[in-house]
Structures are given as structure tokens and as C-alpha cells.
Amino acid sequence: MAMSTQLLGNGFAVEINDIDLAKVDNAAIAELRDLWMQHKVAVFRDQDLSDDALVSFTERMGPLFVHVRDQFRALDRPEIMYISNIEDDGRPLGALGNGDLHWHSDQTYTRRPVFGTMMYAIEVPEDGGDTWFGDLAAAYAAMPEDLRKFVDGRKACFSIEKKT
Q1: How many other β-carbons are positioned within 10 Å of the β-carbon of residue 82?
Q2: In angstroms, rounded to a whole number, what is the distance separating the alpha carbons of residues 96 and 91?
Q3: 22 phi and psi, to 5 degrees?
Q4: pLDDT band with cut points at 50, 70 and 90 for residue 113
Q5: How many Å apart are CA 43 and CA 35, to the nearest integer?
Q6: If you ran DSSP here, which 8-state letter would residue 98 be given?
Q7: pLDDT tens across 114-135, in order?
Q8: On the CB side of 24, how many CA atoms lie within 13 Å of its CA?
Q9: Range with the lowest mean pLDDT among 63-77, 91-105, 138-152?
Q10: Mean pLDDT (whole number) for 67-88
Q11: Which of 94, 102, 150, 158 is at 20 to 30 A from 136, Cα to Cα?
Q12: What's the rounded Cα separation, in Å, for the pair 73 and 80?
């Protein structure tokens, strides 16, 4: 069966179905990457990936980033960072599990920001636990012209360090 797609969020996101990410060929990778770049968010439901299969798929989509927060990385696959609200003896098993960041943009503080992020959910609650995405290109396009002129040409400095 060929993969099928369904647009989400006014075309800002696309759900891609009928594909096993552990078994995609190079032609499918190229098509998936094009769909992801065109729609900015790609959703793949009902995947069953080992850590190795997840890393294999993601490295075929683009260069991998190893997060600086090493306490929540997978021991044998440092490319994987755990995000979880589960604790073991009072210690969190992953980062950002209790709404630690209400809004952020991944790795914008690095010298070469990543062009995307992959999330693989193992356990999703029935209620809550949502991850939201914002279309900054659409937000910029919808800005009043005077505000766009005000921000055009300006630069921002993103840092993981807190300002005092």
C-alpha cells in the first residue's frame, strides 16, 4: 500500500499514514523529507521503532544533533534524549516532563541551529500531554506591515543561559 497523507492545521502540518519508518527506501525518504519541509510538521502515527531504527530513520532525514543535556540521553544512542514526566525514586527519567518549557524553539542557541526536531512518543496520556507547534512564517506574513518593517533586518541573540 502506498503512503497516504492528510493535511492538518490549514496545511501547516501533514499526517503521513500507511508507512513503516523502519523499512523506508531512499525514494520514500526523499518524498517524506519533501512533505516535511513543505508542511513544516509531519506526523507519523502507529510506529514501532527500536532506538536503532529511530536513529537510522532520523539520520536519513538530515544531520543529527546530540543534545547538550547528557543526563537524559539514551546510554547507547546519545542522539536520543528522553522527555518524560515519569519519576523513579523521586528522580525524573527524562527532561521537560512537567511543562518545564511552555514555549521554546529547539536548539536556536547553538552556533548552527537544527533545521528540525523528531519526537517519538512511546506512551501518550489520554488527556493532556499535548505538544503544540507554531508556524512562525505564517505569523510573520500575517504581521501588520509597520511591525514587519520594524523587525526586518534585526537580529536576535538566543542563549540557553539565564540573563541576570
Answers
A1: 17
A2: 13
A3: -80, -10
A4: confident
A5: 10
A6: T
A7: 778 888 887 777 887 677 888 8
A8: 28
A9: 91-105
A10: 76
A11: 94
A12: 6
Question: Scanning the structure block, which residue is given the C-alpha cell 523529507?
Answer: 33
The residue-averaged pLDDT of 11-21 equals 93
Structural domain boundaries of the chain?
1-48
Long-range contacts of 85-94 (CB under 8 A, 24+ apart): 85/129
**What is the bridge-based pairing of β-strands 83-84 and 41-43?**
unpaired
Placement of cell 514501532 in the chain: 48
Distance of CA 2 to CAs 24, 31, 87, 156, Å?
11, 12, 40, 43
The whole-angstrom separation of Cα 163 and Cα 60 is: 37
Question: Using an 8 Å Cβ cutoff, are 135 and 40 in contact?
Answer: yes
CA distance 40 to 139: 14
